[in-house]
Hints:
The protein is an alpha+beta fold. It is about 30% helix and about 35% strand. The longest helix has 19 residues, at about 95-110. The chain is globular. The model has no long low-confidence stretch (mean pLDDT about 90).
Amino acid sequence: MKYHVSQIKVINIPDLEQLEHGKCCRTYVYCFTNLLPEQNFIDQIANSLEKRFTFFKEVYEIPEDVEICASIFIERLQDNEARVRVLTNQPEEDCVYIFGIYTLPRKIEERFGIVQSIQGEQRETWID
């Protein structure tokens, strides 16, 4: 299979913030083509987007199963703009990173309507 440089997408992924107690977070800014609901409704949706990943001791050859939780916090900034935070209860693993940049944008769009941009970059950069 051959690749061409035009196939490469460079996206503006926010830096990983190290928080207290080993937690970390990435914060994204989403713009939508439509108006967002009130914050209390947004909070309910954000809670439903939480994702848990389990690393099984047999598969990863570790002493015990480890569960990593990616919690989602969404803050309505303007009528059509929101700050989306992906917070993990342990240092970020690849599964959480991929969830935040690939799966989460699609899930957010399913619940809030069409995403116009993420991190100032057009929808097509993030969502195929």
